[in-house]
């Protein structure tokens, strides 16, 4: 009788996890060692063992995080990771999305792109993040503003192109208002080889979706005589030759206009081709459209405006709010630019 009771008791303990080997819950994955990530991308970092604060520094840009928290402060922006930073002994671990959410907008090139060739036609690019400051651009829900999304994509694109060896000039890299004439004047003043404006689209028909790249075809006479265009022609030619005459300005402008129309179309097609090859980016129709947008028509060099998707479309909106998706868009544009530059 005693032996039966003992067997029964042991059986109950076993069924309830008290007999035999103890049931130990599987610990959550630690993630990637922060040291490895920072070494890979040459990012400086330090950790305060008392406050548990981690500070990162890349080319004068700073980010702060707290061990045990998923929140990272990137300047004034608050980024939420998929999991908190963790520590085991003296090793700090970060989640898988740390690179795309923190390092890419930090200005770090995540690699995977070819270097610019020495014989390339492209050495300097102006990236224009649309809107900014009091100009919010397209908005759909509170906290979902075009000006913020396009600045994030522009910073990611800057990191990728900078990593490929191209000099990048941003029309804005903070939330500030820059007028349209100022944006085009920057391109003329710095002698840029390309001008790329980044935007997010919207439409009353919420079914419409897809990436579009705009470029300018034949420019009408009224636009050729636009004051801002004449100012940019003067800035550009004086940069080449301080004693440039009006005749020289006109000759240079004509030559650049012929080059601009054909090369802008070529660049647009290459970016659309990359988007189709990616497969996860919707492209609307053939992906390219003619336009007369101010920043496109008043630049002297090949210029495009990329509408990265439609906030008015629910499926596309749900993608655009994801840092990983904005990183894909930046990579597509960067690959198209490098295809064009090295062709």
Describe the structure.
It is a single chain. Helices cover 41% and strands 21% of the residues. With 343 residues, it is an alpha/beta fold. The strands form three sheets. It has a six-stranded mixed β-sheet, with helices on both faces. A five-stranded antiparallel β-sheet has the order 2-3-4-5-6, with helices on one face. It has a three-stranded antiparallel β-sheet with strand order 1-8-7. It is globular and about 70 Å long. The termini are far apart. Residues 5-27 have low confidence and may be disordered.
Short description:
The chain is 41% helix and 21% strand.
* Total helical segments: 11
Number of strands: 14
Q: Helical percent range?
A: 40-55%
Q: What is the H/E order? A: HEHEEEEEEEHEHEHEEHHHEHEHH
Major β-sheet annotation: 6 strands, mixed
Overall pLDDT score = 83
The whole-angstrom Rg is 26 Å
What's the structural domain tally? 2
Shape: globular
Please give the CATH class of the largest domain.
Answer: Alpha Beta
% residues in beta strands: 15-25%
CATH topology of the largest domain: Aminopeptidase
**Helix-strand makeup class:** alpha/beta
| Fourth-level CATH superfamily of the largest domain | Zn-dependent exopeptidases
């Amino acid at each position: 009788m005693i032996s039966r009771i003992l067997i029964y008791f042991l059986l109950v303990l076993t069924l309830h996890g008290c007999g035999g080997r103890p049931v130990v819950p599987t610990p959550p994955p630690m993630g990637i060692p922060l040291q490895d990530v920072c070494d890979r991308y040459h990012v400086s970092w330090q950790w305060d063992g008392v406050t548990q604060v981690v500070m990162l520094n890349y080319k004068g840009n700073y980010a702060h995080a707290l061990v045990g928290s998923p929140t990272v402060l990137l300047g004034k922006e608050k980024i939420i990771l998929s999991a908190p930073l963790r520590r085991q002994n003296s090793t700090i671990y970060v989640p898988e999305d740390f690179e795309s959410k923190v390092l890419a907008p930090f200005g770090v090139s995540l690699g995977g792109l070819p270097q610019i060739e020495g014989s390339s036609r492209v050495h300097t690019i102006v990236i224009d993040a649309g809107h900014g400051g009091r100009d919010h651009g397209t908005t759909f829900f509170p906290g979902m503003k075009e000006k913020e999304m396009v600045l994030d994509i522009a910073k990611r694109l800057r990191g990728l192109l900078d990593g490929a060896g191209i000099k990048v000039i941003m029309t804005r890299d903070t939330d500030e208002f820059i007028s349209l004439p100022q944006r085009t004047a920057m391109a003329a003043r710095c002698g840029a080889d390309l001008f790329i404006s980044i935007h997010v689209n919207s439409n009353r028909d919420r079914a419409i979706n897809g990436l579009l790249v705009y470029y300018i075809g034949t420019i009408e006479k009224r636009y050729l005589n636009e004051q801002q265009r004449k100012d940019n022609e003067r800035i550009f030619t004086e940069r080449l030759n301080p004693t440039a005459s009006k005749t020289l300005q006109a000759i240079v402008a004509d030559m650049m206009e012929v080059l601009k129309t054909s090369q802008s179309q070529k660049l647009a097609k290459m970016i659309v081709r990359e988007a189709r090859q990616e497969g996860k980016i919707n492209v609307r129709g053939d992906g390219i459209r003619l336009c007369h947008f101010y920043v496109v028509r008043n630049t002297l060099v090949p210029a495009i405006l990329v509408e990265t998707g439609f906030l008015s479309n629910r499926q596309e909106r749900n993608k655009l709010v994801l840092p990983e998706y904005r990183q894909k868009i930046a990579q597509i544009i960067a690959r198209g630019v490098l295809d064009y530059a090295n062709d």
